[in-house]
Automatic annotation (TrEMBL):
Its cofactor is Mg(2+). It comes from the Bacteria. InterPro entries: HAD-like_hydrolase_sf, HAD-like_sf, HAD_2, HAD_sf, PGP-like_dom2, PGPase_prok. Pathway: Organic acid metabolism; glycolate biosynthesis; glycolate from 2-phosphoglycolate: step 1/1. Pfam families: HAD_2 (PF13419). It comes from Roseibium aestuarii. GO terms for molecular function: phosphoglycolate phosphatase activity. This is Phosphoglycolate phosphatase. HAMAP family: GPH_hydrolase_bact (MF_00495). Mg(2+) binds at residues 18, 20, 180. The active site is at residue 18. Keywords: Carbohydrate metabolism, Hydrolase, Magnesium, Metal-binding. Its EC number is 3.1.3.18. Belongs to the HAD-like hydrolase superfamily. CbbY/CbbZ/Gph/YieH family.
């Protein structure tokens, strides 16, 4: 049992979680989907190690990067049918291989017990985010879910992070972002809240080099990191 006192229920801080590469290991399903779409359009499949460096800005940008890796120039018009295929295929295979990372579910429960509100702030569009959370039975943990298309601009804009805190009914002071990539760190900075990075996510450079306030290698270590940040 934690000895940390419960927080005031009136104005709780919010732990705002990124989704892909932070809460869930979605890489395998993203790789399969991207390559199904690219190959159907007559292009080469991309190696999983390369796809890992392309995730974090939403499916449309992933597809754009997949085309660019094939040396294919794209326009909004040429991208549209491929993006439609991506959405349809990925929706039908959203949790074939995707699972919460080790320790996630227990950690979410402990944070709730400690009086935090919890939110998701991902650059995945809502159409994909909501079914993925539901398929993994994660939805009920969260007071708010913000996708890449919920507000005008996605992360690294501050608005989705601040919107997640607001929709979760919490206050900005004491809230913390937990993410795996530069978009999360920059969004947290823009929102004026600290950021804990996980080092097992999807990023082309080591996340430690991006200057997060704390780095964890397992969700069992998140509460200690939050305690160190005095939130
Ligand atoms: O690139 C995506 O699909 C979304 O990524 P995120 O959950 O890490 O923001
Ligand atoms: Mg991520």
């Amino acid at each position: 049992m934690s000895s940390t006192p419960l927080r005031s229920a009136a104005t709780p801080p919010v732990i705002v979680f990124d989704l892909d590469g932070t809460l869930v290991s979605s890489m395998d399903d993203l790789v399969v989907t991207l390559n199904v779409v690219l190959e159907a359009a007559g292009h080469e499949a991309i190696a999983p190690e390369s796809v890992r460096t392309m995730v974090g800005h939403g499916a449309k940008v992933l597809l754009q990067r997949g085309l660019e890796a094939n040396g294919v120039a794209w326009t909004e018009d040429s991208l549209a049918p491929l993006y439609a295929h991506f959405l349809t295929y990925y929706e039908a295979h959203i949790a074939d291989h995707t699972r919460p990372f080790s320790g996630v579910v227990d950690c979410l429960a402990r944070l709730r017990d400690r009086g935090f509100r919890l939110a998701v702030c991902t650059n995945k569009v809502e159409r994909l985010t909501l079914p993925l959370l539901a398929a993994l039975d994660l939805t009920w943990h969260f007071d708010a879910v913000v996708g890449g298309d919920t507000f005008e601009r996605p992360k690294p804009d501050a608005r989705p992070v601040l919107g997640a805190i607001e929709r979760a009914g919490g206050m900005v002071t004491g809230s913390v972002m937990v993410g795996d990539s530069v978009t999360d760190i920059d969004a947290a900075r823009a929102a004026g809240i600290p950021v804990v990075a996980v080092d097992f996510g999807y990023t082309p450079v080591p996340v430690r080099d991006l200057g997060p306030d704390r780095v964890i290698s397992h969700f069992d270590d998140l509460e200690a990191a939050l305690d160190e940040l005095s939130v």
